[in-house]
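Predict both folds.
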Amino acid sequence: MSTAAPLVAIVDYGMGNRRSVEKSLQRVGARTHMTRDHDELRAADGILLPGVGAFPAAMRIIRELGLDDVLRGIAASGTPLFGSCMGMQLLFEESEEHGGAEGLGLLKGSVRRLVAPGLNLPHIGWNAVRWTRPSPLTDGLPDPSFLYHVHTFAPHPADEADVLGTTDYGETFATVVGSGTVFGAQSHPEKSSAHGLALLKNFTTLCTKVTA
């Protein structure tokens, strides 16, 4: 038996630090493919959904490309899926950003503006992330870990069991989440040095298949 390097497909819908994410995944041992082709996404060992910008605009493009149902099907099949930054927000049912929009609904809950009186928004900077329960995604990371954030909105999972890590900026919010094989990080792992790379390494390991 041999372990093949997993193929992680990066969803190419025009929003997100796709090249930086691609380089970081390759650095931790993944093969990568940037694509919006439905069949190529379904054939991958894992999916990374990036995202930078506004939630409603991202969901509009995802729906226009027919990627919403594809991603739901991939998640339902048990293929590991990781949402990064705004891509993590898209995993939830809805966001109040710019008047509101529906998300992918892979995780229960909503995305809301940070409650941070007296603090600048967007929130930009490094934060200590405290782990709330064990997960293969965070295995081996120190508690706390330090991850780099750039955002104005944050998810509020309906199920506390989906929260893997929290941090503080005005309020305490969920910054790493997971349910089954669906995971997300509000931070930018590709910009978060050793701890961010460790998250991506763990996700890559989850995507690994053993072949004869």
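Second protein follows, with its predicted structure tokens after the sequence.
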Amino acid sequence: MKKEVAVIECLTYDVLMKKYLILLLLISISAQADVYRIIDEYGNISYSDQESSHSEKVELNKPSTYTPPPIPVVIEDIVDTTSDDNEAPNYQLMITSPSQNENIWGTEGNVTITVNISPALDTERGDTLLFKVDGKPVTDAQTVTSFSLINLDRGSHIALVSVIDKLGNVLKNSKSILFHVHKNTIRQQSVN
């Protein structure tokens, strides 16, 4: 029933748009009539679409036009029918370390990001992990489920890990994790 209503609404919309298009076409045809300027004996200027003995034809500039860029066609639910053997596993991916909103002290900015992935990476398909911090990859794609960052700047950072295929297409993203790096500082002691 919903499908039939959608088809009727679509047809109604199409018919309505065709009527508006015809109306606009008729208006544009009538808008192309000549325009005449008339100055009366008191110096008042008026315009008309009818020529008279006291009128002069006004040359109008061509109207500006706009051609919108083409709208790309979005094709949803494309199914790859080449081979079921090549289908990507339904990966479940979660960053286990650091934890959400974790404060990391005293490591001089050395942080290890660890992920848990299920099922295991399908290396025969060429699936790998890509580690990102603050939106930028921090290493090449790899099959190891952890990566150590050395001397990361102090402050807040966001980690994200993606499973990518051999063509670089993202198959699955983990939830992003916010963590905070605190570095030790050396305080000057006053000399007595």
